[in-house]
Structure formats: structure tokens, C-alpha cells
Amino acid sequence: MIDRFQYREDREAYSAARVKALEALLIKKGIITDKTVDTVLDFFETKMGPFNGAKIVARAWVDPSFKDRLVADTPAAIAELNLPEGMAGAEGEHMRAVANSPNVHNLIICTLCSCYPWPVLGLPPYWYKDPTFRSRAAREPRAVLNEFGLPVPEAIEIKVWDSSAQIRWFVVPERPVGTEGMTEAELEALVTPEAMMGVAIAKAA
To answer: Could you tell me which residue ranges the Nitrile hydratase alpha/Thiocyanate hydrolase gamma domain spans (predicted)?
Structure first.
């Protein structure tokens, strides 16, 4: 997907260089310390990220009543689980879940900028923030999903949910067929950020 949006080949090195320069300037001015960035990175590597979303989705797969509560009142349902503190902060305010079904496929976008539920999905990928994706997914979601390798039959309705500072959406994908004997922990491994964004489906290993 990245290639379709024609990012510069050295984008990673270019972005890293800019970040290093900005970090050095902020340290020099005394705004942050040399430990600040490491602390933030550790936060998103160990506390807030798609591993939380995987736990939420796996619980919804094995507990239909939890799934109903998750869709009806997402923050309250999430609070039932043993997840790290801060799930409602740092871009987790007002999170809402929508569930895929045999008749409906949900897609999450942000047409204004890149609002994203960090506590359950981690940091947004490049393409999610790209104006091309944001505009095309709103106008022609079926075509965009097909480009992601996810052809959605015409008989299935596609609902597009626009995240914002007021509501940050994520998807509960359908449970893969053939996973009836798997444990909740094993199911977590099948849940990807892409599936929780609606640009992919969860698949059995």
C-alpha cells in the first residue's frame, strides 16, 4: 500500500534524521531530557498498542455478551479487562467499537487528520495519514479495500466510520472459521491492527 502512495524511498531515514535533529534541539533547550523519547517509546511498546486491541477482540470472540457490551459502551467494556492504566487517555478518549458481520464490513478512516485509538491499535501507519487514502476511502471504500487485497462482495455492505477527536473507532473483525478449539490467548495472535482498522480480515494461522 505504501508504494501506491509513492512515498520517497528514503522516507524512513529522512524522518529519522528529522526526529534526531528535533530531539537534539529540544534537549539543548532543556525542554526534554535524553530519557524522554525512550520513555515514550517504551510506553507504546509495552503498555499502549495493538496487543491491547487483540485482547479485547479475542474476548469478544469467546464471550458474545462482552461483545454486545463492547459495542454498546466501549469504554465500560474495556474497563472490565485487566489492561494497563491509561486506556482512556493518550488518544483513547471516547473510543467506540463496531463489529463486522456476514452482512456488514466496517472500515475506519480519519478524513480530517489522523485521529486513531492509540491504546488499542498503536501508532497509525504512514498510509492512514495519507490524504489519498483518507479521501479515496471515503469516496470509494470498496475499490480501496480491493487494492489492499480485500475484495468485498457487492452483497456485503461497507460502512465507513470517520474517527475524530470526539470519537475514535476500531473494528471487531469476525472470528475466523475453524478456530473453535483455540484458547483466548491463541486467538489474540490472529488479531492484527489492519483487521481492527477494517483493511484486512482476521485469519487462522
So the answer is: 15-200
The pLDDT confidence band at residue 2, using thresholds 50, 70 and 90, is very low
Ligand-binding annotation for 15, yes or no, is no
Task: Tell me which architecture the domain covering 48-197 has in CATH.
Answer: Alpha-Beta Complex (3.90)
110 annotated among ligand-binding-site residues: yes
100-146, pLDDT tens digit by residue?
999 999 999 999 888 888 888 988 888 898 888 999 999 999 999 99
Note the residue count of the chain: 205
Active site residues: 110, 113-115
Report whether 101 belongs to an annotated binding site: no
Q: Which DSSP string corresponds to 8-29?
A: -TTHHHHHHHHHHHHHHHHHHT
Q: Are 27 and 33 in contact (CB under 8 A)?
A: yes
User: pLDDT tens digit string along 63-100?
Assistant: 999 999 999 999 999 999 987 766 666 566 688 999 99
Q: Which residue has the cell 483493511?
A: 199
Nearest Cα neighbor of 197 from 111, 139, 120, 143 is 120
d(CA 5, CA 120): 25
Q: In whole angstroms, what is the distance from residue 47 CA to residue 37 CA? A: 15
